[in-house]
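Um, can you check?
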Amino acid sequence: MDVSRNDMLGELANDAALERTDFVVQATEQLAKFLDRHRERVAALGGLTLIDDDPDYLSIAPDMTFRVRSRYEDPDTGEWASDTEIVETASELVELYNPVEIYAAFSEAAREAAGLAAEPGATDDLLATAGIPPEETFGRGIADDAYAGAADSWAAGQPAILEAADDEEGAALAMYNLALDFQERSQQSESSLLEQFEEAAARVAGQLGDLVIVDDDDERLVLTATGRFRAEVLPEEGDGEWRQLGGPDELVEFYDPTDVFGDLADALAEAFPAIAPDLEEEADGADEAEGDAAEPVEAAADDAADGRA
């Protein structure tokens, strides 16, 4: 009886653990996408305080890292103390806060910073009964702004259409501006790709520690134990001082994500040979296949030569 009960409890615990892991993964991906969409806005605002209820405190900095204040009891003195730590990834934040609380905190903080009233709740349905006209509320304006913002975002993503130029110089200027615009779009896309990789890599990077990807005389690229890329380069044009690359936005100025991922895979294969296929065996297999394919051709050539003879 006890064994059966323990088996059931074990299965329940395992299933719950799997569901929790799945929830954390999905919640992390959703939060990471939300943060990516609003990265420029948060940077322009200089960060945002999301929760400030003593002792609970949560804020987001312009570099998209979070400051979290926790309260704990000192085992030596028995007194309560507060500690502030930096949370760098969405996965870490989801471990500390329910995602619903995070989104609610963003909503309330943004409204408060904008001087708007609190988000309407179910009790606002009583406004009509109380005789308060819709014009005195803010719901419609916000909805209109949301639709306008969505339209602007859609328009920004559409291909640019150049107007006809009056002369050759005008055409060159239009093409020049278009090239710069698409260069910026390309860098933003590449930066977003690196950020997505960092968010995903954070789940296992801690087990590997810092991994050196490139270490040359004029550049050094490392994937840190937090899953973040850290790089420094020695620009060709400059005063000979090393430049620290602060994140994906700066990283794509010097690196192509395709090269970064390829070099990372090579570094991992070199550090852990067992995870990669044996390239020498593959090469030998390819040579044998080419040899087998060449035999019928050589035999046919010999037959043709005999016939001519």
